[in-house]
Amino acid sequence: MRVLSYNIHKGIGGRDRQYKLRRIIDVIEHENPDIICLQEVDRNVRRSNHDDQPLVLSDYFNFPHRMYRMNVHLQEGGYGNLLLSRWSFKTRHEISLQKGDRKARSAQIALIETPEGDVRLVNYHLGLAEAERHWQVEHLLNHRLFREAKDAPTLIIGDTNDWRNTLNTGPLAEVSFQEVTSPPSRYRSFPAYLPMGSLDKAFCCDCIDIHEARVVKSKLAKDASDHLPLVIDFHLKNQNSPSD
User: Is there a domain that residue 142 lies in?
Assistant: First the structure.
């Protein structure tokens, strides 16, 4: 099974500053994911031609199961997180991660019925300040909507803005979530054209078997956004892996 996480920067290239959503689509399509976790997805914003990006992306990939949360509201439209899945959601929740008067952030939580069993997937985009990020993760882990499926195999993924790589020793470590994207030097994803920071990270519980984790470093990916996508191939432990 494959999940892709990608801060698409509203479809605007990191270097040429041109809006070309088709580049984002091509990058994703090349990886052929089963679950797509996107951040900074525009809806009805002038800079992106007033496109309904959640609808365009879900229609293109023909993924019938989707969640969209507009976190930041602009004068026209806004942007937020999008989760797309081949497989149906058993449950789905949105949790606000906004701290005080800082920029609105959120986490999407979906219990997904995969061919190998139920998997809980969290797609989030964390804040710019370290104390804010640690508060957001702790708030997520302690939230009743997160805890209601506490025994489900869980993968948490997204743009963490964690420049100093401190999340893996904070609240996630306290509940025995392991960082998939370690060491950080192997997973530099920002800025896309010359990656220096490992900002796009994944964490999982020990009942998930990570087959491969990698950052997509193609030329197109370096042009399409200011982040590179993160791809995780995984299986559930104690399950039979597909023969192909």
Answer: yes
Encoded tokens for 213: 């984790």
Q: Strands 35-43, 2-7: parallel, antiparallel or unpaired by DSSP?
A: parallel
The whole-model pTM stands at 0.95
Burial environment of residue 194 by CB neighbours within 10 A (0 to 12, 13 to 18, 19 or more): exposed
Give residue-wise pLDDT tens across range 24-51. Answer: 999 999 999 999 999 999 999 999 999 9
58-92 burial string, b = 16+ CB within 10 Å, else e? beebebebbbbbbbeeeeebbbbbbbbbbbebeeb
Q: What was the pLDDT predicted at 150?
A: 84
Domain-located, residue 65: yes
Packed helices 21-31 and 53-61: angle between N→C axes, nearest 10 degrees: 30
The answer to the question of residue 241 being in a domain is: no
Neighbour tally for 235: CB within 10 Å = 18
Q: Is the peptide bond before 195 cis (omega within 30 degrees of 0)?
A: no
Structural domain total, the chain = 1
Q: What is the CATH number of the domain that holds 122?
A: 3.60.10.10
Residue range(s) defining the domain that contains residue 97:
2-236
In a domain, 243, yes or no: no
Query: Under a CB-based contact definition with an 8 Å cutoff, are residues 8 and 26 in contact?
Result: no
Q: What is the mean pLDDT of residues 180-198?
A: 97
